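Thread title: Can someone regenerate the structure for this chain?

I was given the following input by a collaborator and told the matching structure tokens would be attached. They weren't. Posting the sequence so someone can regenerate them.
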Amino acid sequence: MTHHSRERVLGRIRQALADAPLASEPVRDYLVSHTPDDPATIVDLLHENLADYRAIVHRTTEDELPALLAELLGRHGARTVAIPPGLPAAWLSTATAEQRHDEGTALTPRELDATDAVVTGCAVAIAETGTIVLDGGPGQGRRALTLVPDLHICIVLADQVVASVPQALPRLVPARPQTWISGPSATSDIELDRVEGVHGPRRLNVVIVSP
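Best answer:
Regenerated them for you:
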């Protein structure tokens, strides 16, 4: 095609586009959730999906939480437990495991490797996907805390549970490093043999706390 012919074709295209009516703004009336807007139903769905991902799920109240945490740490034989900054002291008030606080002088990789468990809170939990999100906020700590110890006990308050990912995103701070957790760390080889604990904790216990 010669230069003259190309310009003539392009000119016709520009003219056709100039005469075309402007497209109206598309209506994006998307569903943000496929779950009934009922708090009890949403919490039950989170429990079900977490269990499908092989997390061990417990239900308790705030008053009973310290006793349950002490029991879980003892049941798993945890002699040491990492504590992130901002975790409520009352939660572990009856636990007998040695508490290693990760503030001031942070725990070294060697110290973390020698720590049996970690207890954290979370930023939000998503029922439809069975996912817990940590963003380094108070009571959650840096990522290494939840990747190195073999046992992670995560506390989820009932008002932190939402139905879907679109409902979870506004609760998160984009500038913070996020960890999205669906069950214990797991991977598979070429024969699809599942191996847990390769990239993070081998055991995940989730405690859902209702008022």
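The two ends are 75 Å apart (CA to CA).
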